[in-house]
Amino acid sequence: MTSHLALMALFAVFVSTVFATLMRDEPRDQLWFGSKLFVGFIGAGVLIGWLLYPLPL
Amino acid sequence: MRAAAADQVEPAINKYLVAVLAWAVPGGGHLLLRRHQKGLTFLVALTLMFATGLWLEGRIFPLGFDVTQPLVGLAAIADLGVGIPYFIAKFMGHGAGRVVAITYEYGNAFAIVAGLLNMLVVLDAWDIAEGRK
Question: CB of B60 within 8 A of CB of B111?
Answer without folding.
Answer: yes
